[in-house]
Predict the 3D structure of the following.
Amino acid sequence: MPVDSVLREDHVRVVTMDFPPVNALPVQGWFDLAAALDEASRDLTTHAVVLRAEGRGFNAGVDIKEMQHTSGFDALIGANKGCFAAFKAVYECAVPVVAAVHGFCLGGGVGLVGNADTVVASDDAYFGVPEVKQGALGAATHMARLVPQHLMRTLYYTARTVPATQLLQFGSVLEVVPRASLDDAALAVAGEIAANDSRVIRAAKEALNGIDPVDVNKSYRFEQGFTMELNLAGVSDELRDGFAGTDKAGRR
């Protein structure tokens, strides 16, 4: 299963992404991930969620090749809607979501992690929003929840990445551990949350979302509008073709 959801005896639900080779999610993958998190919200026996991934890295964003091999704008619109649904499902999950991040966390991966409640990372983890390289905009809303404003802007404009170790000083990453210890570290935090009365924790999650200074759903949707403009202007196709090594018809 590309998206797997398992409820443990300690009431921690582990949601795992597995989309080889780099966890670049296709359109359906984003919706499947959203569905898994929505299920966690509805299930009162779920007290906390660990969001993790198999493979080389946590998440490489959207599947650019799927987009370029699909005629018209169906894949683009699908990716926009799918990412919005998945990010929203993380943010609005009725229980806290602990992101366990290893390797690369790029683009859409930052959207997931930026909306999580707690982030635990391995010592090889790094974060970035390389959208400008593919003629898109997005996830600045979520990167701004991980780093200070000026660093976010620099990362956005340059497509640079930032290591998890640097995020420790901002408090956006709780702890950085060896890769082999990542799952245990994330499960430990989630288990600590899950041990509390879930009625209180669910109320706390709703309360904390209610006092957030930025509406992440509206903010991200605003960003997506500029991506659509760039696509209509032909800029995005040109840059994605170069990235994917194909033309619009899928020829190399």
Notes: Confidence is low (pLDDT under 50) at residues 246-252. The chain has one domain: 3-180+204-244. Residues 7 and 179 are 23 Å apart (CA to CA). The chain is about 45% helix and 15% strand.
